[in-house]
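Suppose a colleague, Dr. K., hands you the sequence of a protein chain of 690 amino acids and asks what its three-dimensional shape might be. Before reaching for any lab equipment, you can write down a predicted structure in token form. Begin with the sequence itself:
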Amino acid sequence: MVKGANVGLTALSENVGSVVVGLGWSSATGEGDADVSVLLLDGDGKVRSDGDFCFYNNPVAGNGSVQLLGKTPTADGSEDRISFDLDAVPQEIDKVVVAASRYGGSRFGELDDLRLTLADSTGDALVRFAVDGADEVSAVIFGELYRRSGEWKFRAVGQGYASGLAGLATDYGVDIDDTEEDAPEQADLAEDGPPQPDRPAPEPSRPEEPVGEAPVSRVPAQATGPRVDDTPVPAPPAPEQPAAPRPARRPRTAKKKVTLPRTTRKSLADNESWRAARLFPVSALKSDRERETRATSVVLSVMAQVPEFGRRLTAGFGAPAGRMETYTEVTLPHGESPRRPDGVVRVERAGKLWTALVETKTNGNALKPDQVQAYMDIAARRGYEAVITLSNDVALEGSPLVDVRIDGRRKHKVALWHLSWAEVVHQAQMLIRHEGVGNAAHAWLLQELLHYLQHENSGCHGFQNMGAAWVPVRRGIDDETLCQGDARALEVIENWERLVRQVCLRLGGELGQKVLPVRRTRRGSDPRALRTELADHLCEQGRLNAELRIEGTPGVLAITADLRTGKLRTSIEIPDAEPGYPLSRVKRLIRRLSDAPADLHIETLVDGQGAGPRGTLERLRPEPADIVPKDGAQITGFRLSLFKSMGNGRGSAETGFIRSVDQAVDRFHAQVVAHLEAPARRSRSAEPTG
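The predicted structure, expressed as tokens, is then:
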């Protein structure tokens, strides 16, 4: 679509009761990012209340009809997805505005390939809109969904705001409160969870006029919970009288939520051998069939009982926001031999029913194509909307886990979706440890679910095997017999990508921050062609490479697995633009790393030359001048690295490759990266104030 164009959704697809909008961008460094927000507007073009403003700290709005699903990696970078249950949008809402904003003085001109995509409930892309001319703005309205004669339509907007999120939000009636609020009180699980740090925001500023066509009305900049990170423009002080400092604003959200306490309470048991009673026991599981049946029942039951959790897992699949019921071991007719899918999910909203079949695998067992095909056929005949597969494997873009045949003669189309157990664990962690759920009982249920899924006997441990090609490829690299074009190298590259995605999910769930793989690719690149190219590099260089972007971290965490030397390297390059003499800047860095491991390698980066002098932290603590360039070259930054022996086995045992990668990333983040994060780091989980 082009800017200003509009289209009726029903003219594009029959499956537009629920749609998913994606906002995407990329950057040369892989570090550029923006925050997505959605405003629900009434007939006057205003939000009815602050609850109609959907953003990072209020991810669900409109009675659950709008939900931010978070980021997902793509071949071009990453994409922020938003689920819209259009059938459930309140009748008072006439228009839904989809926008994004940058923070810390950044502008959209620093990002490439700004784009919006809209897909129907089956996953088919219906709309694509490329946004141009947003170089000098910090907020952009990408598009809007609006009602016309009972039908939902989409308009490509592409309007920028130089005044940032503050100007955009206030134009639509969002109330920005610049009075300081009391900090939330300490509380334990029974009393709404632990306190969370509020996200800092600068002083309010008078918004400038938006770039392009702007709404006519404007209200005073009084504010709520949106992030407002643009550079303030304070009013000039009275002559010879200093301006009084204004209190920092703090985000507000619509309601109070419960999170788990960060410190465990003292046990009342007589001794450490006593085991706490669990809702979902795992000790009696003896076979793969028992693990599969138990895991399906556990997950589906918690989805039905904890609305926030069930919604997070199904919103991206086109399910509406409604009453959910789940079933296991359902028998459905299929020719002469009835089939029994592992589960069924049904969601009812306003008299309409959305239904999906669920096929589950645990303990590393692979999905069976003929089984999934049978469920796709049954779903098509019975009018079900989707088939959801759930296993330890991680799906890759452009490479489906199971190839199924779609009968084009059928009018009803069934979508095939995949979930990894690692994704289920990630969503549970984000809710109970960082974002909060509706009440203490729901938090406890999610905690019991996590305990079950993470138990060694559950079989729900995510991606745990580098595949049959791992050992032959390692041997081929070692004796230099592996040739480019070898299919085994491509299999290793695919499994390496799965492992990196799982590391991102696990680390993000533990930290409560966005952790995404960095994809440095050209726009429109075919992900399968990219993997083939990486497989050729593996054959030539003998190394696996990956980069992770962790929110709030001043750099990209790089992972290199050298299959020739058997070494894992985790590293980060941090820029250094602080004023002062070179030796003073080096000393400041070493002081920040006072608790880092002695074997940490520090390398000076110099302008125009790349790498400069280097040394270990143990040697540099008494002699920091050893990494100051002797020729007076300008220091541009530092590279910090840790090395670790690489596991040999293809699995996740103590000596396996997967375990060694997890340990290397965890150690590097905890002992190095955590010391580099800014003290006033932006918080994604400000505690609601009720």
